[in-house]
Design goal:
This protein has 141 residues and is an all-alpha fold. It is built from 8 helices and no strands. It has helices at residues 4-19, 23-26, 29-41, 45-58, 66-75, 79-92, 97-109, 113-140. It starts with a helix and ends with a helix.
Amino acid sequence: MTDPNAILKNAMGALDVFQQLPLKHYNTAWVLSQVGKAHFELVDYIEAERAFSNARLASPYSLEGMDVYSTVLYHLKEDMRLSNLAQELISTDRLALQSWCAMGNCYNMQKDHETALKNFQCIKKQIFLRVWRIMMVLWLF
């Protein structure tokens, strides 16, 4: 079991490291997504939303961290923004785990828990299939 204090300590340490980066590196979608994830772990949803929103501006088609971003929007009860994010992610890659997660959060916000659960189960199936493929490749070689 992971120690919650260790998670908070790691998130704060990550934020310290990222804040020391030059602006041109800090303002990349990947770094901003990591900053958003760290704020999410610290339960600072407003700062997480700000970081993820800037990541989307920096790279609108990047899926990095968008599953966490959709969860942030869910916690902030931003139903319209969550719906827009889900639609954008589906149009970018309808089979991506991040797209399914955003759709699940969207349905969950609309109190359609059965459909939300189906979306989250699709994520579980995709992860299982990826792991299975890796195991088969390793077994064959």
